[in-house]
Amino acid sequence: SYFLRLARSRNYVSESEVCKLESVPLDFGDYHPLKPITVTESKTKKMNRKGSTSSTSSSSSSSMMDPLSSVLDGTDPLSLFAAAADPVTAAPPTNGARRKRDKDESLAVGSDFEPWSSKRGEILARYTTTEKLSINLYMGSEKGKATTTGSAVSEKVRTRLEELDDLEEGSQKELLNLTQQDYMNRIEELNQSLKDAWSSDQKVKALKIVIQCSKLLSDTTVIQFYPSKFVLITDILDTFGKLVYERILSMCMDNRVSLPDNFSPESVNDTAKETCLNWFFKIASIRELIPRFYVEAAILKCNKFLSKTGISECLPRLTSMIRGIGDPLVAVYARAYLCRVGMEVAPQLKESLNKNFFDFLLTFKQIHGDTVQNQLVVQCVEIPLYLTLYSPAIDWILQCIAYHAPDVLLTEMMERCKKLGNNALLLNSVMSAFRAEFIAARSMDFIGMIKECDESGFPKHLLFRSLGLNLALADPPENDRLQILNEAWKVITKLKNPQDYINCAEVWVEYTCRHFTKREVNTVLADVIKHMTPDRAFEDAYPQLQSIIQKVITYIYDFALLFSVEKFLPFLDMFQKESVRVEVCKCIMESFIKHQQESTKDPVILNALLHICKTMHDSVNALTLEDEKRMLAALINGFIKMVSFGRDFEQQLSFYVEARSMFCNLEPVLVQLIHSVNQLAMETRRVMKGNHSRKTAAFVRACVAFCFITIPSLSSIFTRLNLYLHSGQVALANQCLSQADAFFKAAVSLVPEVPKMISVDGKMRPSDAFLLEFLCNFFSTLLVVPDHPEQGVLFLVRGLLNVIQDYTWEDNSDDKVRIYTNVLHLLSAMTQEAFIYHVDKVDSNDALYGGDSKFLAEINKLSETVVSQILDHLKTLGKEETLKRQSQLALYFFNTILAHGDLRNNRLNQLSVNLWNLAQKHGFADTKTMVKTLEYIKRRGKQPEMSHFTDLALRLPLQSRT
Amino acid sequence: MGTALDVRVKRAGKVYRDGEVLSGVVVITSKDTVQHQGISLTMEGSVNLQLSAKNVGVFEAFCNTAKPIQIINSTIEMVKPGKLPSGKTEIPFEFPLQMKGNKVLYETYHGVFVNIQYTLRCDMRRSLLAKDLTKTCEFIVHSLSQKGKLLPSPVDFTITPETLQNVKERASLPKFLIRGHLNSTNCVITQPLTGELVVESAEAAVKSIELQLVRVETCGCAEGYARDATEIQNIQIADGDVCRGLPIPIHMVFPRLFTCPTLETTNFKVEFEVNIVVLLHDDHLITENFPLKLCRM
């Protein structure tokens, strides 16, 4: 018949022999680009500074490690940012590793110095108030000042606050009854007006704003807010300092070349020097001490323009100037600011840092003096609270001193503090600021000192917390370890206030996990549960409890061991707020996926993790973000993949069934389950070496059924199509012919539903490329699918062709014809005596029909229809704007004939010549391609029995380029 | 207003001393060509004395003498009458700052009753139709370094209720003991006034401690004189109830223009003093006065 003459008969084996590349012995060396990445475990010490709760980002050796999952472990910049804003989990962005003393004591502090910026957030979050605040601004000239300093509070209550940025000469603004948030907004407005004034060249106004702002620092009403006020206002001062410095620096530009970083005063021109000097004279004439101090400190760096020794002369003077500040709290913050500026501008000048601390010690007695005590009584502030207001400042000063300082100095500092009656406030700051190694080595001494401390002053639990933070970073001597834990926990467990308790316990959990076994960890967890359960105290302590879990799973990542800690699951029960609960579950699952090396069937682990995954799954609702769902699904999938019951396939299947019922709201999990079940079926086949017993056949059918009923519940159409095809292939491989047919039929009937546009990664994309790919894949499978005895010949192929025919294709696309061309490949493969591939133990149509002529005639008829469709389509492309497509399509069809057709047939030969000419007719053919094609034909012609190719080549003219 | 005139001296700080040459440029900017009758530059220096209101009545009769005392006045012709091209024209000049005879070039000083000021004035005379253009620019004169070495004159002080004068009810005063010292009352004007102060004890809380810089200006002639003390600046060195027994630094920078080396002439005097002012919480005000002698080295 017609097509028989068209399709050339193929001997796949010999063709493969000819075409095969010469085989080269493969050298399986160490390197292979696709080899799973194995990271050799390098124990990175936990570098996060104290108080951090973010998990370690230390390496893992798991080959299952998903490179993207590193996003999940909380060290990405976004979550770090979030953490910094969170008071409890505030984790500094720098790895606060206090390295061994660098020999390079250069002019700038290293990255191992925890910068002020990382303290800011913590202070703002910690020192808050609900009291009303006031701002008093007087923008008059300094000399004519009438009001007395001090009290900014007036009894008048202003009903309306006037605009702040109206800072005219001589105006006075008193803003009363501000909430903390109002206050912060106002300060930010001032910051903005400073910048505006500066950029509009109103330098005097800018200076006045800065003076007025720093004056606010002498006001200690609402004292519990003072540390935060300091943070806000010194931000403005920093802005000002930078503006002045940059302005003067820009005056030094010579021919658009700015000064090098380490310029010398000699290279500064006179105008810049004069301007700089003017600033200093102006500031020196500021009447009030505190603004004069702060503003001069703010522009300390500008001394570089005037002389080499300027800064080193200024720092001691400013240091002793602070002695004039009577209020000890105001003074200590002034010292902190000076140290901060000093560290930034001249970190090598350590003398002033020490002097600041010693001066502070000298004035320490003031804290207990009458003036301070009276003030506290008026403001109703308790001594312990008052003392904690000092911590940020003292911590900072000590941190500056301790940076790269020798142990001798630290010891001396410690002794000096001790002399002051073993003061808890100082002790706490010493522990916060000094190197963890230094503290850890003397842990027992510190415990002794903490015990001796006066009960009435600084809160003792804070001391234990500080010690614990050090011990989380550095190890105490081996012999002391247990005693330290006992001593500390003895105190901690007695804390009555749940917040105090949990803040301490949180820190000490890390120490416990680090050095002790599951027994001690269990005891600690039990103690926490005991303290936090009454009155549902846990509700106010979720961040701390979460951090405890984080720490436990950081150290105990053997999940069999972890779940054998009896109190672990009861501990989880304390997370009763869903969002927190899910977060915790996510952490645990992340850890599991990261650390679990081998698949498991341990019932304890399975039960616990199923429970955890279920919790995550159940949190999904209509409002859950796609990303969140993706993340949850990835975690659950990670778990599913790690579950294996070995040879107990039935158990495995029933696990999957259970999982399906548990995780039905997360499609990616269902997809994973379908793949897992398919894999299970194939595994069964492998074990049975392809010969299913009654029992395994039934089991495999159960697997197939699982897939068949699960797929329709998925929403993505291509997922469904591909899974139908895939599952059909698996069914076929397992000799479940009717089930395979069912899958394929389902796929065929689904194709018409494919929309023109689909959403890919949140963007709408045309679906044609996906559909084309799927259909080609599908047709390749259909080659080996045997015809159903009760259906007609090539029932599925016909069905699919009909669907393609009826599908509404994009108007100006050639997809349908491309598919038809590909169908010709299939049909020519079907006419072969033996198909190119088979499914083991399944008879395909070649065996069923044995080259029956009726069967071949059917194929022939089909091909004729398809060819005429293609030719019709080519004709419709004769218009000017579609000529290029016509050329491409003609060449495509030509190649198909070349590959699959029997060119000895005259009609086919003529058709190919026509196509060749059509492709070139309008000059849209690529000459290079045409030349290469022709060369190929000539080469083929030289092979035995292929002389008709040589003849053909002669009939194919090459169009010369005009 | 098509034409703009500007005088710029070369030094950024505009500071010159006797014997130096004042150099700079006169800048004329104009869209069109400028027709003029000559451009001249005048250097002027004078002492302006003013009588305080309270003394005016008494001295009116003879103190018409309070007209400015000229220190220096000289003019140079820069450009002969003619035309200047459009755009920006810069005409450089050099002006020697030299006193005739044994006259002294007093240092620039801006006070209340005494003002010593030096200016450069550029005049562009123009035809009848156009207004003459004038631009003045102040420059600053520093006197020459004084010869010889400045002898430091440290002063120790102790302030207690007993040391005070002008006290009405000594019994009502709270007890206090404040000690300290000034490193020198002979001060170089470019160096800060320094010293230390210790509040050894004080019954009442300290509210503030301030340094008050005072100018004492004396104007007059043979017939009589007026002497006035006014505040130049007030610098707070302690704010709040300072720590007892801890030395607090005394540090004050002498402001430019408003201070000059202590000056004594036949017609007027400019002297300086510093007050240490301690303000206690019950509004007791304690002041201790120290005359200073300023000089330029």
Structure description:
The complex is a heterodimer of chains A (962) and B (297). Helix content of chain A is 60%, strand content 2%. With 962 residues, chain A is mainly alpha-helical. Among the domains of chain A are: 202 residues, no CATH class; 81 residues, no CATH class. In chain A, β3 and β4 form a beta hairpin. The two termini of chain A are 43 Å apart. The relative contact order of chain A is 0.05. Chain B folds into two domains: 138 residues, Immunoglobulin-like (Sandwich), CATH 2.60.40.640; 141 residues, Immunoglobulin-like, CATH 2.60.40.640. Chain B is built from one helix and 21 strands. In chain B, the strands form five sheets. In chain B, strands 2, 5, 6, 9, 10 and 11 form a six-stranded mixed sheet that branches. In chain B, strands 14, 16, 17, 19, 20 and 21 form a six-stranded mixed sheet that branches. In chain B, β10 and β11 form a beta hairpin. The longest helix of chain B has 7 residues. Chain B starts with a strand and ends with a strand. At the A-B interface, α8, α9 and α11 of A face β16, β17 and β18 of B.
Fold blueprint:
The complex is a heterodimer of chains A (962) and B (297).
Chain A: H1 2-6, H2 12-19, H3 77-85, H4 117-126, E1 133-138, E2 172-178, H5 180-199, H6 203-215, H7 226-251, H8 270-284, H9 289-298, H10 303-306, H11 310-321, H12 328-345, H13 350-362, H14 370-379, H15 383-388, H16 391-402, H17 407-419, H18 424-433, H19 436-441, H20 443-452, H21 460-473, H22 481-492, H23 498-515, H24 518-532, H25 542-555, H26 559-564, H27 568-572, H28 578-595, H29 603-618, H30 626-641, H31 649-662, H32 667-687, H33 694-710, H34 717-733, H35 737-750, E3 757-760, E4 763-766, H36 768-782, H37 795-806, H38 815-830, H39 845-849, H40 853-876, H41 883-900, H42 906-921, H43 927-941, H44 947-955
Antiparallel strand pairs in A: 1-2, 3-4
Chain B: E1 3-9, E2 15-17, E3 21-30, E4 34-36, E5 39-49, H1 53-59, E6 69-79, E7 82-84, E8 87-96, E9 109-110, E10 114-124, E11 133-142, E12 155-159, E13 176-182, E14 186-188, E15 193-202, E16 206-221, E17 224-239, E18 248-252, E19 263-264, E20 268-280, E21 285-295
Parallel strand pairs in B: 2-11, 14-21
Antiparallel strand pairs in B: 1-3, 3-8, 4-7, 5-6, 5-10, 9-10, 10-11, 12-13, 13-15, 15-18, 16-17, 16-20, 19-20, 20-21
